[in-house]
C-alpha cells in the first residue's frame, strides 16, 4: 500500500505560514489516522486552520515490484 498526502501551499492560510500550517496538518491527520482502516480507497479532504480545503490524503494499492 501507499499513503499519499497532497497539499497545495500557494494560497490562503497555508501560503502565509507554510511550515506552521503543514506541521498542523501533519499533526492533526497523524493523530486522526486511527479512525480509518487504512485500506486502499480510504482517504479524506485536508483543511487548513481556516477550514479551507487545501488537499487530500489517500491510501492506494502499492506496486507489486
Strand content: 25-35%
Report the average pLDDT across residues. Answer: 92
Helix content: 25-40%
Overall, the morphology is elongated
Structural class: alpha+beta
What are the secondary-structure elements, in order, as H or E?
Answer: EHHEE
Distance between the termini: 12 Å
Q: How many strands, which pairing sense, and closed or not: the largest β-sheet?
A: 3 strands, antiparallel
What is the count of helical runs? 2
Number-wise, the strands total 3
Radius of gyration: 13 Å
The tally of domains stands at: 1
* Low-confidence parts: none
Strand order of the largest sheet: 1-3-2
Structural write-up:
This protein has 65 residues and is α+β, with helices and mostly antiparallel strands. It has one domain (2-60). 29% of the residues lie in helices and 29% in strands. The protein is elongated and about 40 Å long. The termini are close together. The mean pLDDT is 92.
Concise summary:
Helix content is 29%, strand content 29%.
Layout of strands and helices, then pairs:
Blueprint: E1 2-7, H1 13-16, H2 18-32, E2 43-47, E3 53-60
Antiparallel strand pairs: 1-3, 2-3
